Amino acid sequence: MQKNNYLTGKLNFNLKADFSPAGDQPFAIKEICKSFSGGASKQILMGVTGSGKTYTVSNIIKNLNLPTLVLTHNKTLAAQLYEEFKKFFPQNDVGYFVSYYDYYQPEAYIVHESKYIEKDARINAEIERLRNQAVKKLVTSSYPIIVGTVSSLYGIGAPKDYIKNVMNLKKGDSIEPKKVAEKLLSIGYIYEMGSISNGTFERQNDSMKIQTADNEDSVLLEWFGDEIDSITSINPISRERNADLNKVSIFPSTLHIMSDKNRDKIFQDIKNELNHQIDFFNQDNKILESERLKQKTLYDLEQIKTFGTVKGIENYSRHFQQRKKGEPPTCLIDFFPKDFLTIIDESHASIPQFKAMPKGDHSRKKSLIEHGFRLPSAYDNRPLTFKELTAKIDKTLFVSATPGLWEMENCEKITEQIIRPTYLTDPKIKIHPRKNQINHILKEIEKAKNKNNRILIITLTQKMSEEISQFLQEKNIKSGWLHAKVKTLERIKIIHDLRSGKIDCLVGVNLLREGLDLPEVSTIAILDADKQGFLRSAKSLIQIMGRASRHIDGKVLLYADSVSPAMDEAIRETSRRRHIQKEYNKNHGKSPKGIKKSIKMSKLFLIGEEDSLNSKNYKKGIRIIKKLENEMLNHADNLEFELAASLRDRIEAIAEEIETWEKNE
Fold this sequence. Notes:
Layout: H1 5-8, H2 25-37, E1 42-47, H3 53-64, E2 68-71, H4 75-88, E3 93-97, E4 101-105, E5 108-110, E6 115-117, E7 120-123, H5 125-140, E8 144-148, H6 159-164, E9 167-170, H7 177-186, E10 190-191, E11 200-204, E12 207-211, E13 218-224, E14 227-234, E15 241-245, E16 247-250, H8 263-283, H9 287-307, H10 317-320, E17 341-345, H11 347-370, H12 386-392, E18 395-399, H13 405-410, E19 413-417, E20 428-432, H14 437-450, E21 454-458, H15 462-474, E22 479-482, H16 488-500, E23 505-508, E24 521-526, H17 538-545, E25 555-559, H18 565-588, H19 600-607, H20 618-637, H21 641-663
Helix pairs in contact: 2-3, 4-19, 8-9, 16-19, 17-18, 19-21, 20-21
C-alpha cells in the first residue's frame, strides 16, 4: 500500500497560489487531514458558497499526498474544477474525464410504437482527447488529479488490457511498417490520409504519421529498410519538427480494449451466448427477434474482427473483460492505485444522480434485449451501482453547502467552513408580497445597474423565464434567459455576457444553483418562493441564495405571500451563518472584501476549445485557429452547416482571446 506522506513529510503535489489559507480554511484543512490520517474513511466539508472550498480541497490533496479522483454531477462544474486544479497544481498531472458527446441519442426500442432507435451521437474530439489523456496520466503518473462526472462510473476496458496494448517503439527497432499499422488498427486507430484528427494514422513510402489519441502533436516514424531510423514529434498541420525522440509510447485510441491472448475465446463466448438466446427465442416462437439478433450480432463480430471496433462495441464489454454475469464493470476508478482520495463535489446533487443512473440504464436495455436488438450480456455494460461505487472507494470527502441525508448519516465527521477568506457574510434576506413583484424587481434592477452590479431572477418554469426576460427587454433592460433547452454554446455566451456587463439581468430556472462563480451578481430575486416542491426545497433555496454571497452588497429577495417550511429552514440556516460571520469579523477586526475573478478561461474551455491558451502562446493560438478552420471548411463542404457554425463560434472565441492579449501588452 502507498505510504501516507502526510505523516512522513514527503510531498509530491506542488500547490501554487498567490494567497494562503484564511477564514475557516486553515481549521478545515487541519481537521480533515487529521481525521483521514487517523483512519476516517468518509467526511463532509460543509462549506458555504464562496468560502473557497476548492482551495481547501487542494490543500487537503497536497497534505494527504494521494492520487485523487474528483467527481461532480455535470460537465460545466467539472470543467470549472479542472481549470482551478490546473492553476493550483501546474506541475502535476491534472486530467478531465467526462462524456465526450456533444449530442447523444442512446439506442432504444419503443415497444408500443414498434420503433427501434439506433444509437446516434456526435463526439467532441477535444474532450475525447482529454479522456484518453486522463487515462494515460493515471497509467504513467504516480500523483494525478482526475476530474470527472458520472461518465467515470461507466464501464471501460480493463487496466491490464489497456497497459498490455501500449505500443512501445524506439529508434533502431527492427519492425516492418505493416506490423506497426496492424497493431495501430487493433488498438482503435483509423487509417486516414491527410487527417489531423486524434486516433488516426497515415503511411507514405517509408514514413508513417501517427496522430496519437492523447496528444496535440503528431509522431513521425521513418524507416530505413525494416529498421526505425528516426522518431520525431511534429506539428500536425505544418509538419514542422518539434523534437527528435529516441523512443515513443503509443497508447490505445479506444478504452474498450480486447485482450489479444483471449481474442478467439471472446468471439466464441459471444457466439455461444448468441446461440443460447436464439434457442430461447425459438422456443417462445419469437422468430423475428431470433433472426434480428442473429444478423445484428454476427455483423458486429465481423466489424470488430475487421476494424477493431463497431458502433455499440461497449455492449460486449463483459465478454472482452471475461467478467461473470452481474459483476461490476471496470471503470476509471480501477485505473487508480489501491490507496487514493475521492472528492465528491456538490454531493447533495451528485449522489442522487449516481444512485439513479443504473436504474435508467437497465430499463432502456430491457426492451432492447427482450426484442432481439442486444444480447443479455448488454445488461452488464452499465455504470456502477452506488453500492459498487462505495465499495471501490475508501477515503472520501463529500463537499457541499447543503449535504444530503445519505452523507449526513454515513460520514464519521462534518467540518464546517463558514468564515470566508474574503470575510464576506451571507446575503441579507427580505420577503416581499407577490403583488406588484415585477414593478418591485424593475426598481431593484435599476439600483443594481447604477452600481454596475448584476441581478438574477429565479422562476419556476422555462416559459415564465422567457416571458419575463422579453418583458424586461421591452422596458429597455438588457436581459437574457437561461434554462435547460438553451444550447450549451449559447448558455456559455449568456453567462459570459452577464459577467462582462453586456446584460444586466439574467432570468433562469434551475441552472444557477450550484458551483457557478458569478461574483458580479449582487441581488437574487426568487419568484414564488413559497411554492412547495424540489425547486423550492430548503436545500435549493440555500444554494440559490448562495449565488449572492460573493458580492459585498449581496441580498436575496423572496417574493411570497406566506413563509413555507422550506423558506423558514433556509432563512434560519442563512441567518445562523450570517450571525457567525458577523461576530467573527467583529471579534477579529476583519472587513469584508468583494471578489474579482477573470472570466476568459471559463468561456474558452467550456466552448470545448483547447485548454492552455492562458499562457499567451500566440503560436499555439494561431495553430489551433488554422486547425479549426480546416475542420470548419470540411464540414461546410459536406453540407454539415450546424457543425461548421459551431466551429466558427470556437474560432471567434479564440481570436477574441488573442485580441485581448494584444490590447493588454
